[in-house]
Amino acid sequence: MRRAGAARAREGPPRATARRARVRPWPQTFRDRAAVRPAEAASIEQGVRLRALFLLLVGMILAIAATDVLTGAVGLLRETASRPLTEAEKARYVQEDIAGRWHTWPATLVFPSELEYIGLGRVQLYARRVGIAPETACRSGTDAAVGSVLEEHGCRTLLRATYVDQTSTFAVTVGVAVMEDAERRQAVAGDLSNDDRVGVRPVAFRGTATELFGAAQRQRNAWVGVGPYIVFSTAGYTDGRTRQAVAPEEIPHSELWPTAQAVAGRIAHALGDEPAVPRCTQGNVC
Length: 286
Fold this sequence. Notes:
Blueprint: H1 2-10, H2 15-22, H3 28-80, H4 87-99, H5 101-104, H6 107-110, E1 114-118, E2 124-132, H7 144-152, E3 157-164, E4 170-178, H8 182-191, E5 218-226, E6 229-237, H9 256-272
Antiparallel strand pairs: 1-2, 2-3, 3-4, 4-6, 5-6
Transmembrane segments: 53-77
Keywords: Membrane, Transmembrane, Transmembrane helix
Region (Disordered): 1-22
């Protein structure tokens, strides 16, 4: 009996006691994680709210931007759509078209090859263009008294061409002084001299009926204004006869000056003729 008791004593405590001794407590990290979960949930919930607010703001911004784009597109469509021209737009169209003719038109359109005039007995005749001079400065293509006034008022350039009448008896040089606008041209007109001895300088072309036509051969000078242009004219005889050679009691040929006036007048009329104005901003269809 004692041996049995001693043996049990050596075997240690009962098994139930041994099992309870092997049960371990929850790890510290697990307890910490369990404590953090409510904070994480609160943080996630706050993040969801902020994300929803952010998306709402982005949506509002995109909606405003889309509205602006749509409004701009509608305005652009209305602006670019064909519509009737206003009276101011019609006037500006005419003004710009006339003002640009001196460089948008070819020289042969500014100075046509033939120009009609009426001779004695109301006969229809044609003056013939002999040549077109190179473009020049306003001062160098006119007499000093005229050139200084043109330059003072901002004359841009001077175009010249010479014609002869149908019998090649008279030579006529036409000069087109190009001003900045009609207002500048009107200002020049008030300052130009009425002396018919000065004006545009004639252009002669060698080997033609005009080769003897120089400043001394001019019998008369004049000018007329239209749009931004001052159209000068000067006429004389092709035989070299000077103004001084014509006696005061002698009247120049009755056709000389009317021919010059007709030639210059037709050129001025073409430059200042109002164009056909379209009814709409994109042609004649609104």
